[in-house]
Amino acid sequence: MSHFGRTGPPDITDTYSLLVLNISFRTTADDLFPYFDKYGKVVDIFIPRNRRTGDSRGFAFVRYKYADEAQKAVDRLDGKVVDGREITVQFAKYGPNAERIDKGRIIEPSSRSRSRSPRRSSNKSNWNC
Fold first, then answer.
1. How far does CA 81 lie from the centroid of its chain?
2. Model confidence, pTM
3. Per the structure, how many domains does the chain have?
4. Name one GO molecular function term (predicted).
5. Is 60 in a helix, a strand, or coil?
6. How far apart are CA 7 and CA 10, in angstroms?
7. Rounded to the nearest 5°, which phi and psi values hold at 103?
8. Any idea what the CATH number is for the domain that residue 71 is in?
């Protein structure tokens, strides 16, 4: 559930998403908010839950409006102990602005070339029975 209630999903276009790993299974969005709010305007905090049990899956996503605020949070909170666990904070690899992040650092949109992975061919001649 989001830290911001059940008013529906927030608008996350043009936000920077951080992945927070190794949170306690009892840690809530309300517990995380004061840590992350120190570094900028938090748009949303989401803790994925197990669909069957409703229990936390042990990680969270924190979204910021501005890249520099998200970078400050990564720099200052990665390795911090929260609820007795050392958390890992990094930029999420997927999401609206993930293409502007490279190895945890913000890059200029024009400085990164887009390349596609080569597709695997389905050459059936390799399958000899």
1. 18
2. 0.69
3. 1
4. RNA binding
5. strand
6. 8
7. 55, 40
8. 3.30.70.330
